[in-house]
Amino acid sequence: MAEPPNKDGGGRRTVPDRTKTPGSVPAHRALPAAARALLALLMLGLFGGLAMAVLSLSEPAPGLAAAVAEHLAASGVDHPVTAVLLNFRGYDTLLEMVVLLLALVGVWSVGRARGCAGHAPGPLLRQLPRLLAPLMVLVAGYLLWVGAHAPGGAFQAGSLLGGVGILLCLSGQPLPRWADGPVLRLAALLGVAVFALLGVAVVLLPDGAPLAWPPALAKHLILTIELAAMLSIGVILAALFTGGRP
Amino acid sequence: MTQPVFWGLVGMALVVMGLYALIVHAHLLRKVLALNVMSSGVFLVFIGLARRAPVEGSAPAVDPVPQAMVLTGIVVAVAATGLALALIVRLRSLTGRTFLGGDKGD
Amino acid sequence: MPPDLIGPDWQGSGWMLASVFVPLAGALLGFLLPRLAAAMGLVTAVLTAAATLALTLDVMAGGPARTLLGGWAAPLGILWRADGLSVALMAMTATVGVMVSLYAAAYFRAAAHERVFFWPLWLLLWASLNALFLSADLFNLYITLELLGFAAVSLTALGGGAAALTGAIRYLLVSVLGSLSYLLGVALLYHACGTVDIALAAACIADAPRPAMQAATGAMIAGLLLKTALFPFHFWLPPAHGSAPAPVSAVLSALVVKASFYLVLRLWLDLLGGGAGAGGGRWLAELLGVLGTGAVIWGSVLALRQERLKLLLAYSTVAQIGYLFMAFPLAVAGSAVAWTGALYLALAHGLAKAAMFMSAGSLLRFGGHDRIAELDSAVHRLPLTLTAFALAGVSIMGLPPSGGFIGKWLLLEEAFRQGRFGLAAAMLLGGALAAAYVFKVVGHAFTPAERERRVRAIPKAMEWSALLLAVAAIVLGLTLPLISPLLQVGGASAAAGGAA
């Protein structure tokens, strides 16, 4: 996506002939200076209004910290953010994982991936993944486990796994044959599937409601869900990086 | 001004700057970046203001719910960026352009 | 905490759960096993529609249904609430959804790539629609809005050409911008009120600091207006709806824009107390009325000038959305009849516009193009499709005995009763312009062809699904005694305090 280097950083209209570079912006498409100035004024006004809104929010704040602390013991984890993510507002997390999966399906529907084998890695990138990848997987597992009582959890661990995938792709390692196709798709949807299945299954328990983990089982259910979610998030993030269907 | 309010104002500034950039720039990549800056601003407003002291002295000072919401928001922003980039790359490979036909601004 | 917030209502929550999780499961299976995607998609569509129907009957008989997701009451947990308004829109979604699924199964029969991706994306879109209509939690609504937006964008780009891609990218940018604006409002609201539950936030709004509440409301409504494509925020809609594949255009115009309109209405009624709570309520309602009038006139005039059928239909959507917003100034003067009219219009438009886009898709497939001037002689070859288009047009024009007629009549009656002659004049003008552009299309389709063209056979499923939807739009007009009480259940009339 080449754009001729411009010290102003874009947005200025007077620039030497850009029409020759494919994909660059023809001069007549940029907004005229008068419109930009008017827009800037409008934005300043908008900022003023929003700033007044922020300044008017009084201290102390009515938050949900107390409510979370009160019910933390029944949630199955010790860390309040994890409790909110996977118990109190677990439905939000489920939908968020669906969003991620949906983005993958959307990206796959648009075009094919560039393919990882095409990258020509330098000497550093050839050797480093051998050291880093196992270490990163280990740290990801740790992050998953520690999420129960300290900052951490499925998303953080999943991001790290995604990083492993990206690192391997950049170093020229394509996915092995067996991992492509249905296995890849299964790994991508496993997080949503496990979460949704458990969420519906608990309805069958006495006094059950959707996504309501009974306090005795909550810790184990949450760990199971986080495990599946970590795998899926890692796979989806790495797959999004390749930019298309395999 | 207290620290939370300061972060709230910074967040609002990011939102407004991102909005300006979204309208003004024609290159699609710039627009995507502008949206990312805007979402960072919104998230900052969300969490920054959460550091205010709660009503009862015994509860912890930081509200965990906005943190969880922003975690969710970050993932959604990543998904949006991934989808947008794939579409832009495809558009470029089809037409060689990286800008929309007409201007996006209102 | 009000006692009825504790404990789930099992009857309701079973069908509510199914209406979201069945399409989700179908999407996952369709993604996992692409070869069976179409078959599973159809089965899932029927099952989802059945669950929605069961939920509708439950709510009609027993009143609003609630579910505490996670078993935690608000403000800690997330609440699902199915009242008359939600269920009416879910029922329309189910009707359109089943017909579009039948249509799409035939439409994509030969296109393997599109078919494989259409079904997971479409089912996820349907799941997100149901999740949106059920949710009573502001942050949860943000996620469902994003889910809806991404699914819609991906479906728009499924056509594959540069026009579809450009339309999809613009749609995505606008969608994300709208959601971010909405989220900013939610953030401000949370920090003022300590909750994102709609009912609890409504109780807090009156006492919260004014600038923060006005900014929050403004940001949320602005974001939703952008997503509903209300004039002047409509610029993204015609390119997106006009260049998507026909079943996708049907879904976008009929369902997706209604979701954000539903949210505006929901926030207006439940959060802002029908405009009485927040200070600038009356002013906002008038502004929405003015923008709605602009949408009707601008959209209808531009529709008349279009040469391509799908773009004509897209601009017609822009116009029809304007009618919906005209109800705001009428209703804030204290009458619930305007809401009933607007909702009738929303339901009728959903059914009719989907039928019209599906007919347009059949015509496009038939002749290879959708240029209006060259639609000759389609009436002889595709009588069912033309009938569908004409019947749907009857509803769009607002002629009796269709659903569109009932909606327009209620709004007009209300406008005359309150002396709002400007709004009434705009509605009548819009109706006349709609008649003009519908007859333009139908007229061209009846002119005999000068020379024979190569045409393709159209599967019967495509013709019949469009026809059934068009008939449903007409039948809607005969069911006022049935639908009207449904719309009152627990929702639209509660805030206004009156029964229509």
Keywords:
heterotrimer; A: 2 domains; 8 helices; 61% helix; 0% strand; globular; disordered N terminus; B: 106 residues; mainly alpha; Helix Hairpins; 3 helices; 71% helix; elongated
Distance between the termini of chain C: 31 Å
Biggest β-sheet of chain A: count, sense, barrel?
none
- The gross shape of chain C turns out to be globular
Instruction: Please report the total strand number of chain C as a whole number.
Output: 2
Helix-strand pattern of chain A: HHHHHHHH
Characterize the quaternary organization of these chains: heterotrimer
Mean pLDDT of chain A: 84
For the biggest sheet of chain C, the summary is: 2 strands, antiparallel
Mean pLDDT of chain C: 87
What is this entry, summarized?
Chain A has 246 residues and is mainly α.
What does it look like?
Chain A is mainly alpha-helical and 246 residues long. Chain A folds into two domains: 1-57, no CATH class; 65-242, no CATH class. Chain A contains eight helices and no strands. Chain A has helices spanning 33-56, 65-71, 80-88, 90-110, 123-146, 154-170, 182-201, 215-242. In chain A, helix 3 packs across helix 4, helix 4 runs antiparallel to helix 7 and helix 6 runs parallel beside helix 8 (215-242). Chain B is 71% helix and 0% strand. Chain B contains three helices and no strands. The model of chain B has no long low-confidence stretch (mean pLDDT 86). In chain C, helix 15 runs antiparallel to helix 17 (421-446). Chain C is mostly helical. Chain C has helices at residues 10-32, 37-62, 84-107, 112-134, 138-156, 162-193, 198-205, 210-228, 237-243, 246-271, 281-304, 309-332, 337-367, 378-381, 383-397, 403-417, 421-446, 460-476, 480-488, 492-496, and strands at residues 65-69, 78-82. Chain C has one domain. The chains are: A mainly alpha (246), B mainly alpha (106), C mainly alpha (500). Chains A and B meet through helix 1, helix 2, helix 3 and helix 4 of A and helix 1, helix 2 and helix 3 of B.
